[in-house]
Amino acid sequence: MITPVVLPWPLHSSLEAATRALFDPGDRSSIDFLRPAGEAALVSPESVSWRVFKNPLSLFIGGVTAVIMELAEPRVRTGIWEHTTFRLDPIRRLRRTGLAAMVTIYGARSTAEPMIARIRRMHEMVAGTTVSGEAYRANDSELLNWVQGTAAYGFLQAYHMYVQPLSSSERDRYYAEGVPAASLYGATGAPTSEVELEMLFHAMAGRLERSDIVLEFLTIMRSAPILPLLLRPAQDLLVRAGVDLTPDWVRTILGLNGHGLHPWEAEVIRQAGAFADRLVLASNPAVQACGRMRLPANYLYVHRSAVA
Q1: Which of 5, 157, 250, 273 could form a disulfide with 163 if both were Cys (CB 3.0 to 4.6 A apart)?
Q2: Given this model, what pLDDT does residue 229 score?
């Protein structure tokens, strides 16, 4: 059991506002995680996933790791860079992506399933050719499996390394929990365990390649005003933490060795991650989803589910 943090009102209020802004794409597409009252999500409150996704610091780091790995695959990279607004409006794009992840984990089924269906319909319109002449479709199951697998890896690994270590059985359970939602997205071969994740990495290793777009992505993530002003000095540190979590062999392919953290910086992030994991904010979708399920606001902050 852990003890939630109680902050002075001005700081607590500022962090509440920052959390609300983090998942607000600014296009009136806000989601009410409090309703419908009692309606279950795609994933259970007792899941490892509900514990992992509540931590905004590890989500930021893990998201960077995931996108690095996604951009290493040329078909995925071309689809992202040519068919999204990331380069022109990275903040809105990141917030929309973050909101989609929160809805997938914490949103009521009646909210999550239609949202995923809309995303799939949008993906149906995304197709093209890479610079080497290879055709791609965003709804290609092979590409979706890679995106789902790398995203799951990034978020889990960031929590495991910078917040709280998870046992092997907990990590396997986490991957298995994501399979139903992944299949709704069209990722019919998403990994169900760490062993299957390693198999996916092995199968895709020969497809990955170096690209200046990865460096451009990291530059945007360092310089765009993504975090609230109070936390912005730490943004470069969190981006480098995401680089650090990228598997060694992928960093070598991408030429990212030497772009990570010093040992003392990693320890600073671990301290911040542990602190964030004790911070109960009413604006956090995880806390709101607990309210919808008639659970205490601090349920995920004091509750530890038994490992099967």
Answers
A1: 273
A2: 75
Using an 8 Å Cβ cutoff, are 243 and 251 in contact? yes
Q: How far apart are CA 207 and CA 217, in angstroms?
A: 20
Per residue in 246-258, pLDDT tens?
999 999 999 999 8
Which residues on adjacent β-strands are paired with residue 279? 5
Smallest CA-to-CA distance from 93 within 105, 104, 81 is with 81
C-alpha torsion sign, points 58, 59, 60, 64 = positive
pLDDT at 306: 40
Q: Could you say which residues of the chain have pLDDT below 50?
A: 305-308
Domain residue limits, the chain: 9-302
CA distance 64 to 61: 5
* Residue 186 backbone class (left: φ over 0; alpha: ψ -120 to 50; beta: rest): left
Q: How many residues does the chain have?
A: 308
- DSSP H helices, the chain, are 9-22, 48-52, 56-71, 74-83, 90-106, 109-124, 141-162, 168-177, 179-185, 194-204, 212-223, 235-245, 248-254, 263-276, 285-292, 299-302
3-class SS of residue 279: strand
What does pTM read for this prediction? 0.92
Contact between 153 and 200 under an 8 Å Cβ cutoff? The reply is no
Query: How far, in Å, are 24, 228, 247, 298 from residue 202 at the CA level?
Result: 37, 38, 12, 40
CA 79 – CA 165 distance, rounded (Å): 34
In Å, the largest CA–CA distance within the chain is 57
Q: What is the CA radius of gyration of the chain?
A: 18
pLDDT score of 150: 98
Q: List beta partners, residue 136.
A: 128
Specify which residues 108 forms β-bridges with: 41
Taking the alpha carbons of 89, 17, 276, 263 in that order, is the dihedral positive or negative?
positive
Structure tokens at 150: 């790398």
